[in-house]
Design goal:
515 residues; alpha+beta; twelve-stranded mixed β-sheet; 15 helices
């Protein structure tokens, strides 16, 4: 190609002059370009053209859509993995999972209270009724519970409030070193006892003879408790793999499905033990029919009786417990088993105990296997007797007079708060009176209820709020002036006893005159 500026002959197809760098014009390409441009312009300006696009054009036009769909699918899969497929769980699944996760949490800080919304009584004297109503309605029971399963530490506070004034409170501390208790209304100081001093205290006050008192090793006890907890985790049993969970889940889920009446995003505000809790999340409102609950429980029991996999689970559980006792060289469980066999207590482990425990295990399993089928048959037969059916109807009548409503708030897959109300009125007396079988059985009804002309109405409530869960808990610990019980002599103990008795009398007096 010849350059139009310097006339240099360039290689055919060159875009720029090799001599001066001037852009070269390819006439053929220019003509082709102009032709294509003209054709496109004509196509765009000609509405009559209805020619279908080529297959290649179709593929190109759908590519962005495929990419978007792929991204969405990957995103949904990722969400399902991250949230444990909770997006696709039913309300019953989410609620049950939250309850189980909360129960098994390693660290917990919980506050709660119990009291009465309403209590009225009629049929007795006006003064007597006023006293009883004031007594019942004025009482509130409060509690605070802190625990750390990994640290083996627990603290709790339990209080009784009468008409807004604290009547009594109890504090308890327990960890790997000591156990402590404080009741300010009875004694001014917190008293604690180191685990290592338990033996000497029991022997000192003749609670156990020294030659029969085993040595207490706190570390070994804690280790054994952990080991037994694992051995009793039946969901890890080989026999459990054969259990058909669905038939049990269907019974429970069927009951819950009828009980869940509302699910919504709401909050739950509570003031418990000076803790102002404002909780938000998914609120499950349950209206539980107690008669339906009893029916479900009966069906569950029947299903268990008919499940041939229950016996293997029992046998595996007993085997694991005995194996744990042998592995831990646990003299405490051995003493329990030995005592049942009529043998004396021992203080230290001996290798020969292993054979004894194996014999006890084999004997128990042999008897259970031999008697289990007959025991199940007798139990199932008893469920079909007139006596049982009468009792079932009577209990159903009684439960039908109990109205139970509950609100459970779930956040981050934990139960963060709950509020339950139980309402009972005098119609429950009619239900009990009509249950002649209950009146005749056991003889624990001291009065003839059909002659009891007392009407009452009760509404009780229970509230619980979670302050912390599965995160580090800050414990108050022992106060600096706590008293070591092992350090007290006889004079100290007498002074303590006198103070406790004097304060107990004052407490009893204030309780009786507080209403």
């Amino acid at each position: 190609m010849k350059c139009t500026k310097c006339n240099h002959d360039n290689i055919e197809g060159s875009l720029f002059c090799q001599e001066c760098g001037t852009a070269l014009i390819n006439k053929e390409a220019d003509i082709a370009t102009k032709t294509t441009t003209t054709e496109v312009t004509e196509e765009l300006s000609t509405p009559e053209i209805t020619e279908e696009p080529t297959t290649e054009k179709k593929k190109k036009s759908k590519l962005p859509l495929i990419i978007i769909l792929t991204i969405l699918i990957i995103g949904l899969i990722g969400l399902a993995v991250i949230f444990g497929k909770s997006l696709f769980k039913s309300d019953e699944d989410k609620l049950i999972d939250a309850i189980q996760k909360t129960q098994t949490a390693k660290q917990k800080a919980i506050v709660g209270e119990f009291g009465f919304n309403e209590f009225t009584i009629d049929g007795i004297g006006v003064m007597e009724a006023a006293v009883v109503e004031n007594l019942i309605k004025g009482i509130t029971i409060e509690y605070k519970f802190l625990s750390d399963a990994d640290a083996h530490q627990v603290e709790s506070t339990f209080g009784v409030v009468m008409n807004g004034s604290e009547l009594i409170d109890v504090t308890m501390h327990m960890n790997e070193e000591h156990v402590a208790i404080g009741i300010p209304a009875l004694y001014k100081d917190v008293i604690y006892l180191n685990w290592e001093d338990v033996n000497s205290i029991l022997v000192k006050y003749d609670l156990v003879q020294e030659d029969k008192m085993p040595e207490i090793d706190v570390d070994s006890i804690i280790e054994s408790i952990d080991a037994y907890s694992k051995s009793l985790d039946f969901k890890q049993y080989e026999a459990y793999k054969n259990i058909d969970e669905t038939k049990y889940e269907d019974l429970v889920y069927g009951f819950l499905t009828k009980s869940i009446v509302d699910v919504s995003k709401e909050s739950l505000d509570m003031d418990i033990m000076s803790e102002e809790l404002s909780l938000s999340g998914q609120l499950y409102t349950l209206d539980i029919d107690m008669a339906d609950y009893m029916t479900m429980s009966t069906k569950l029991m029947t299903a268990l009786l008919e499940d041939e996999n229950i016996l293997p689970m029992i046998i595996e559980g007993v085997t694991k417990v005995i194996d744990t006792t042998i592995a831990q060289e646990d003299i405490y469980v051995y003493n329990l088993a030995a005592n049942l066999e009529g043998d004396s207590f021992i203080k230290k482990w001996d290798p020969s105990f292993e054979a004894e425990l194996i014999d006890i295990r084999d004997e128990f399993i042999g008897k259970t296997e031999a008697e289990y089928e007959n025991m199940i048959k007798e139990t199932k037969d008893s469920l079909e007797t007139d006596e049982y059916l009468d009792m079932q109807k009577a209990m159903s009548d009684i439960y039908s007079e109990i109205d139970l409503e509950s609100k459970i708030l779930v956040n981050k897959d934990y139960v963060m708060g709950s509020e339950t109300t139980i309402m009972i009125d005098d119609s429950i007396i009619d239900a009990i009176t009509d249950s002649e079988m209950l009146m005749d059985a056991g003889g624990y009804m001291m009065n003839d209820l059909d002659e009891l002309d007392v009407l009452f109405k009760v509404s009780m409530y229970s509230r619980m709020g979670v302050m912390q869960i599965d995160e580090e808990i800050n414990f108050d610990g022992l106060p600096s002036d706590a008293i070591d019980f092992a350090s007290l002599d006889d004079v100290d103990l007498m002074e303590m006893y006198q103070e406790i008795m004097m304060n107990a009398e004052k407490l009893s007096s204030s309780f009786s005159t507080g209403f």
